[in-house]
Amino acid sequence: MSDTSSPMSGDMPETETKCGYVALIGAPNAGKSTLVNELVGSKVSIVTHKVQTTRSLIRGIALKDEKQVIFVDTPGIFAPKRRLETAMVNTAWGGAKDADVIGMIVDARKGVTEQIEDILDRLKDIKLPKVLILNKIDLVKRDSLLALAQQLNDRIAFDETFMVSALNGDRTDDLMVYFADHMPKGPWLYPEDMISDLPMRQLAAEITREKVFLRLHQELPYASTVETEKWEQKKDGSVRIEQVIYVERDNQKMIVLGKGGATIKAISTAARKELMELLETKVHLFLFVKVRERWVDDPERYREMGIDFPI
């Protein structure tokens, strides 16, 4: 990184740094988390087929030349029916309003759904620069993409429209350049080698939660969460991690454990493997399953997830 704290020698102009926030919003499963991971160049947000996987604001930090872009992966926006869902939607809109630029991601295969209509209605009242991102373009014909882009721009005058595939990285470079160029002038907020502001304990819990969902997304109800209870650095450099998977009922506990403990063993193996790659050291992971009825009404669980408890 060039030294921006003092004038450069000779007649060369001082390099100008920029830094700001981009909030990515959209309906559940639009591809926000996949896009954040692609733009950051590393996994900072978990991805599953289960809708509403992202619950809190996940910030991924990317660099483009002398510009630092902080991407805020927000929970999917939908019509909430339960307290946890209300907290997630409130968190998403809060993240959008605090950003410098808003990127609205639309699943190009689904087009303008009722959820998209609701998002557009609220988005038009937010006085911030807005960018339209049509995702999953590899699955849609070009004529349909152009028609969808026109339909959405007729509703809101987006500053720019991008058509990308977050999964394979198609055309995401142009999107990154645009965001970097439109950040406000100012010093970086995070060190050069930092890719997320999520505490490691919470990121580890998110990784395990991803493995739970990937393994049990058709069997386990939505009301489950993971918390890291202990984190111990051993003398040999390895890490001992103890985590609790909370469910609401005894039958859900049995689903997570599996016959003879086979399911939780598979979840632990998958999570430990990814944690070892992330931490670049040996990981001793111990998972426990506890029943906590109506944990979704416990303010402490919301604090652990990093979201506000809705009254």
TrEMBL record:
<dbReference type="Pfam" id="PF01926">
    <property type="entry name" value="MMR_HSR1"/>
</dbReference>
<keyword id="KW-1003">Cell membrane</keyword>
<dbReference type="GO" id="GO:0005886">
    <property type="term" value="C:plasma membrane"/>
</dbReference>
<keyword id="KW-0694">RNA-binding</keyword>
<feature type="region of interest" description="G4">
    <location>
        <begin position="135"/>
        <end position="138"/>
    </location>
</feature>
<dbReference type="GO" id="GO:0070181">
    <property type="term" value="F:small ribosomal subunit rRNA binding"/>
</dbReference>
<feature type="domain" description="Era-type G">
    <location>
        <begin position="18"/>
        <end position="185"/>
    </location>
</feature>
<feature type="domain" description="KH type-2">
    <location>
        <begin position="216"/>
        <end position="293"/>
    </location>
</feature>
<feature type="region of interest" description="G3">
    <location>
        <begin position="73"/>
        <end position="76"/>
    </location>
</feature>
<keyword id="KW-0699">rRNA-binding</keyword>
<feature type="binding site">
    <location>
        <begin position="26"/>
        <end position="33"/>
    </location>
    <ligand>
        <name>GTP</name>
    </ligand>
</feature>
<keyword id="KW-0997">Cell inner membrane</keyword>
<dbReference type="InterPro" id="IPR006073">
    <property type="entry name" value="GTP-bd"/>
</dbReference>
<feature type="region of interest" description="G5">
    <location>
        <begin position="164"/>
        <end position="166"/>
    </location>
</feature>
<dbReference type="GO" id="GO:0003924">
    <property type="term" value="F:GTPase activity"/>
</dbReference>
<comment type="similarity">
    <text>Belongs to the TRAFAC class TrmE-Era-EngA-EngB-Septin-like GTPase superfamily. Era GTPase family.</text>
</comment>
<feature type="binding site">
    <location>
        <begin position="135"/>
        <end position="138"/>
    </location>
    <ligand>
        <name>GTP</name>
    </ligand>
</feature>
<protein>
    <recommendedName>
        <fullName>GTPase Era</fullName>
    </recommendedName>
</protein>
<keyword id="KW-0690">Ribosome biogenesis</keyword>
<dbReference type="GO" id="GO:0000028">
    <property type="term" value="P:ribosomal small subunit assembly"/>
</dbReference>
<feature type="region of interest" description="G2">
    <location>
        <begin position="52"/>
        <end position="56"/>
    </location>
</feature>
<dbReference type="InterPro" id="IPR009019">
    <property type="entry name" value="KH_sf_prok-type"/>
</dbReference>
<keyword id="KW-0963">Cytoplasm</keyword>
<dbReference type="Pfam" id="PF07650">
    <property type="entry name" value="KH_2"/>
</dbReference>
<comment type="subunit">
    <text>Monomer.</text>
</comment>
<comment type="function">
    <text>An essential GTPase that binds both GDP and GTP, with rapid nucleotide exchange. Plays a role in 16S rRNA processing and 30S ribosomal subunit biogenesis and possibly also in cell cycle regulation and energy metabolism.</text>
</comment>
<dbReference type="InterPro" id="IPR005225">
    <property type="entry name" value="Small_GTP-bd"/>
</dbReference>
<feature type="region of interest" description="G1">
    <location>
        <begin position="26"/>
        <end position="33"/>
    </location>
</feature>
<dbReference type="InterPro" id="IPR027417">
    <property type="entry name" value="P-loop_NTPase"/>
</dbReference>
<dbReference type="GO" id="GO:0005525">
    <property type="term" value="F:GTP binding"/>
</dbReference>
<feature type="binding site">
    <location>
        <begin position="73"/>
        <end position="77"/>
    </location>
    <ligand>
        <name>GTP</name>
    </ligand>
</feature>
<dbReference type="InterPro" id="IPR030388">
    <property type="entry name" value="G_ERA_dom"/>
</dbReference>
<keyword id="KW-0547">Nucleotide-binding</keyword>
<dbReference type="GO" id="GO:0043024">
    <property type="term" value="F:ribosomal small subunit binding"/>
</dbReference>
<keyword id="KW-0472">Membrane</keyword>
<keyword id="KW-0342">GTP-binding</keyword>
<dbReference type="InterPro" id="IPR005662">
    <property type="entry name" value="GTPase_Era-like"/>
</dbReference>
<dbReference type="InterPro" id="IPR004044">
    <property type="entry name" value="KH_dom_type_2"/>
</dbReference>
<dbReference type="GO" id="GO:0005829">
    <property type="term" value="C:cytosol"/>
</dbReference>
<dbReference type="InterPro" id="IPR015946">
    <property type="entry name" value="KH_dom-like_a/b"/>
</dbReference>
